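Build the 3D complex.
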Amino acid sequence: MTDGLSAVHEVAMSPRDHLPALQVLLPLLGAPLCFLLRKEALVSAFTVAISFACLAISMALLGQAMAGEVIVYEFGGWARPYGIEYRVDITNAFVLVVVSLVGAVVFTAGPGQARRAIPEGREYLFYSAALLCLTGLLGVTITGDVFNVFVFMEISSLSSYILIALGRERRAIMAAFSYLVMGTIGATFLLIGIGLMYQMTGTLNMVDMAQRLEAVNETRTVLVAVAFVFVGISTKLAVFPLHQWLPNAYSEAPPIVSAFLAATATKVAYYLLLRFSLGLFGAALVFDRIGVDRLLMPLSVLAMFVGSIAAIYQTDLKRVLAYSSIAQIGYMTLGLSLATEAGVAAGLVHVFNHALMKGALFLVAACVTWRMGSTKIDVMKGLGQRMPLAMAAMVVAGLALIGVPGTVGFVSKWALVSAALDQGALWLAFLIMGSSVLAVVYVWRLVEVVYFAEPEIELEAKEAPLRLLLPTWILAGLTIWFGLFSGFAVEVARAAATQLFTGLGGGL
Amino acid sequence: MIFEIFSHLPTHWHYLGCITLMMIGLYIAISRGNLVKKIMGINLFQASVILLYVSMGKVSGGTAPILIEGAESVVYSNPVPHVLMLTAIVVGVASTALGLALVVRIHEAYETVEEDEIVALDRAEDERALAVEARDEREVGAAEGSA
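Done.
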């Protein structure tokens, strides 16, 4: 066996060839190292260094993928179908960049409000949970093995339950528990689906499986597998009727944690939905034969409206943001349900754009919590004069949420509306506009309280510490930057959608 | 179609076992208000999936997949599903442990592990907060009125 391995490694590999492995191994090894470093200053610097290294790696991978290369990394030199391989194409390189970008920026802010729930001197545990969560999300995205997807998904989920339970009030623990129940059931559904797929194909490798599934497309086992996989992933993605865990989890978690999870976890689930539906089962089976798009479209539209309307009636900033997330996930799944390249590209652009604006908004919530000890909308009265910089960031990201030209929100709404019009679905374009109007309502409500309401208690003007403010403004600034220079995201998303529709087998 | 399903029963009865167990587990997880019972339901649900995978690996007439030196044309069972389930068991243990740890914390915070009682406690807390707010507003209103 060792002879075989050394034969494979005769070709000397440069460090550049190991980038896909390092992408996941760095945070994975970093998590236990946090235990050894212990001192908070050290651990936090270490975590930030690792997450920025991940960002650099993912950008290098995206560069390679955009050059037309599909990067395949075989672990231990075992080729498909025996070994586990990482497989990076444009789609997952793009999602890797989103996840590691948000990770790097948010981790810079440190545990923030979560500090209260952590016993003195145990802050390093927060950082290791955060790094494990990053590991899981990056792993799900990069891997080319379906069982690996399940394992990494559980790594990220288990660590996110821990992070959510760190919230200020006792409700956070209950929210984490409900998420655990829903999340575990969802992941187990995915596991059943993967099992049925394995049963029909005898392989776990995605490319191999995609090729072999074509022959057994018509069997009932595969149809059942599609159902299990879709329900499982939809639970994680919080597609409309399966979204109940999300508002509690995101609003009770410490704001820093919500900023990270809202901007990454659902995005990775959306990537999985694309990968399984277009890459593995294939558009012919999922759209033409089963008609998943006909189910997904009304659900997405419902999510857009139910989420936005619920957001209008919330009394807590974090809850507004959580419900608005459900609506925004609706835009993403709507893109997929159009079943066209333009639609999927619009969904992918929104993955990137929503990560930026929702990350920025939850970081604003972190600033508010730091200053006022709560994110109730009532306590935010008149904060515009007291924390001008943080509140300006909220306005910028809020405008992006509405989809005002010049922000990233406009780019994704434009892409989505033109994809709908390509299909001749004028009514759908109107519905998208209609839900944007609802976004105006809930964002304006925040702006009104912050700038035009009289504060109940006198407070001196004092900004949040730079450590919180800087990440907030990095993300808020990026929402404008990529709104003005939208070429990057749109171009990558289009290329990714084209590659997705050629299928995994065709992309070889 | 119903008869078709029944005709498979003699050869595929193990699926019936898996699905029964799966549904019992899922039902417990959904219907029980006791958080510990919810965890047990999820455990049962996961165990049924483990059985599903393991039964997949069985090849009729196959023996344990340990290489027999020199023997020709031996049928081995497929070991891969078993190995996958080793990982799934580890994942299951981890999520059960974390779930129970959360239950302990919930019990410390709420002094109950019944979901309906916890919901009632949260609601009472909300109503108290609202009542305090309303009283404050009345007081402010009264102060303005007297002034």
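The longest helix of chain A spans residues 341-372.
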